[in-house]
Amino acid sequence: MDILAKIKSLFYAGNDLVIAFNDYLAMEFGRTFQVAVGWVLIGLLLVLVLRMFKFSFDVLRYVLVPAVIIAGIAAMVSTLSFLYIMPLVMGAGAAIMLFKS
């Protein structure tokens, strides 16, 4: 329970920091600049979320699905277990995806 209280205090401290920064922008540069900064930050957040979604979809498409298929086929034709082959194939797929990008 102590950890949750610390996380809660960190969240509130961050929230207070954002509100103070927002008030500083409004007071120092005006309401228009404050709104412009808000739109820019929302745009950057949207780009970040979309990049994370694309990365997750690429991992699913280029690593997980081929690894399951290759490990399944390899487990059927060899004496090795599916759970032994799967991490090896996923590591190879992740390395290929890393070098591909």
Task: Name the structural class.
Answer: mainly alpha
Contiguous low-pLDDT stretches (5 residues minimum) are: none
Let me know the largest β-sheet. Answer: none
Mean pLDDT figure: 90
Number of domains: 1
Radius of gyration: 23 Å
Q: Can you describe this structure?
A:
The protein is mostly helical. The chain has one domain (2-100). Helices cover 93% and strands 0% of the residues. It contains three helices and no strands. The two termini are 43 Å apart. The relative contact order is 0.06.
Features of this protein?
101 residues; mainly alpha; 3 helices; 93% helix
SSE arrangement:
Layout: H1 2-29, H2 31-77, H3 82-100
Short précis:
With 101 residues, the chain is mostly helical. It has three helices and no strands.
